[in-house]
Amino acid sequence: MCGIVGYTGRSDAVAAVLEGLARLEYRGYDSAGIALVSGGRLEVRRSAGKVAALGARVRGERLAAPCAIGHTRWATHGAPTEDNAHPHRDCSGRLAVVHNGIVENYARLRDELSSRGHRFASETDTEVIAHLVEERLDQGLLEAVRLAARELSGTYAFAVVSATEPGVICAARRESPLAIGLADGATMLASDPVPILAHTRRVIFLEDGQVARLEPSGVLVWNASGAEVRADVRTLDWDPERAEKGGYEHFMLKEIFEQPWAIRETVHGRVDLRREEAALGELGVAADRLRSFDRVVIVGCGTAWHAGLIGRNMIERTSRVPVQVDYAAEFRYRDPIVDERTLLIAISQSGETADTLGALREGRSRGAFALGIVNVPGSSIARECDALLPTRAGPEIGVASTKAFTSQIVALYLFAIYFGRLRGTLPEDESRRRVRDVLGVADGVQAFLSSHAEDVKRIALKYVGATNALFLGRGTGYPLALEGALKLKEISYIHAEGLHAAEMKHGPIALIDREMPVVVLALQGRRYPKIRSNIEEVRSRGGRVIAVASDGDTDIRTVAEDVIYLRAESGIMNSVLAAVPLQLFAYYIAAARGLDVDRPRNLAKSVTVE
Question: For this structure, is 67 an active site residue?
Answer without folding.
Answer: no
